[in-house]
Amino acid sequence: MDLPELPELPGDGLPGLFEGTVPPGVYRCDSVGPDVLMQAEAADWIGAVIDLSDVTTKVEFMDRCATGLELPDWFGRNWDALADSLTDLSWWGETNGYMLMTAGWPGFEQADPASAATAVNVFTAAVGYWTVRSAPLTVLLG
After folding, report:
1. pTM over the 0.90 mark
2. Which of 3, 12, 4, 6 is nearest to 141 (CA)?
3. CB atoms inside a 10 Å sphere around CB 102
């Protein structure tokens, strides 16, 4: 499966996302860290980081999603369950926006390109779902 071409986070970066000058989307970025979560919180966005360091399989990816996103117990650790979780963020609470970030994405993408491509498709569909709602979702792949 070919990996989709993903844009880099535009020059306006995080402030642009929070102000609405950068559209919600799935973006590549150099890195994510605590400062990104602090900026999201300051903008009244809810954010989480999925640590993909040393993740090489779909099973490990799903486990890290469950942990990093603090997914509900009903999360089934498959693509459909991830899609369902990302289109029903009621468990995350009310907010101005949602930000999902990954750390270690390039390593996972290289180790399991098929799963990485499927994850991007799930993320892209979830972003599209939230784009027409009051609280957008953006995914940063770092």
Report:
1. yes
2. 6
3. 27
Q: Which domains occur in the chain, in start order?
A: 25-141 (3.30.370.10)
Q: What is the amino acid identity at position 12?
A: D
Q: Which residue type is seen at 130?
A: W
Edge to edge, the sheet with strand 137-141 lists: 26-28, 137-141, 97-103, 45-51
Taking only the tens place, the pLDDT of each residue in 66-108 is: 999 999 788 899 999 999 999 998 878 889 999 999 999 999 9
Q: Tell the residue number behind the tokens 């709602």, with chain if given.
A: 133
The tokens for 117 are: 């491509």
DSSP state at residue 139: E
Q: How far is CA 124 from CA 71, 91, 111, 140, in A?
A: 19, 20, 21, 11
Residues composing the chain: 142
Spacing of C-alpha 20 from chain mean position: 18
Question: What is the C-alpha separation between 28 and 142, in angstroms, rounded?
Answer: 6
Residue-wise pLDDT tens digits, 16-63: 999 999 999 999 998 766 788 899 999 999 999 999 999 999 999 999
Beta strands in the chain (DSSP E): 26-28, 45-51, 97-103, 137-141
